[in-house]
Specification:
Layout: E1 26-27, E2 36-44, E3 52-64, E4 74-87, E5 90-95, E6 99-102, E7 108-112, E8 118-125, H1 136-142
Bound molecules: manganese (II) ion.
Length: 154
């Protein structure tokens, strides 16, 4: 940030990947993160004037976010590609420019289609609880729902 407080990051696609030089890229492929083929970029970090963060998540074809739940909410805008999101026991198709609101306390997981990247902006409060991941008992219960049993990954 310069002394005026103005920050501009120019968009620069890097091959298939959406990038904003100057914004760090976190890769989520590490084992134990329970997501696959996913990156995260904090395009608007929280600051004293705006206690919220906008993150850009991007999954390569077949990639997916962690299956999780938490009390904080997500306001999501799909920016590219298509795929699906599982929210609270139902699966919804998602396409570029759709919006998705994820309320408190529900299981959710975003997945890119097998033939498409999926990129989305996700707004969160900067003060938020940590996501919880499913226990074996949670998975057993989730998998009793035929609408999602073959969709969720953990
Ligand atoms: Mn979440």
């Amino acid at each position: 940030m310069n002394k005026t407080g103005i920050v501009i990051h120019r968009f620069a696609q890097d091959g298939e990947a959406f990038r904003w030089p100057g914004v760090d890229v976190k890769h989520y492929n590490a084992s134990g993160t329970q997501s696959q083929g996913m990156t995260k970029q904090i395009v608007f970090p929280a600051d004293a004037h705006l206690p919220a963060e906008v993150r850009y998540f991007e999954a390569e074809p077949g990639g997916y976010s962690a299956l999780e739940r938490h009390q904080h909410v997500h306001a999501v805008l799909i920016l590219r590609g298509h795929g699906s999101v599982m929210i609270d026991g139902a699966v919804h198709e998602i396409n570029a420019f759709d919006t998705v609101y994820i309320p408190p306390g529900v299981w959710h997981q975003f997945s890119a289609a097998a033939d498409s990247w999926l990129g989305f902006l996700c707004l969160v409060n900067c003060e938020r609880d940590r996501p919880s991941r499913p226990t074996e008992a949670d998975i057993e219960e989730l998998r009793r729902n035929p609408a999602i049993r073959d969709v969720i990954r953990w």
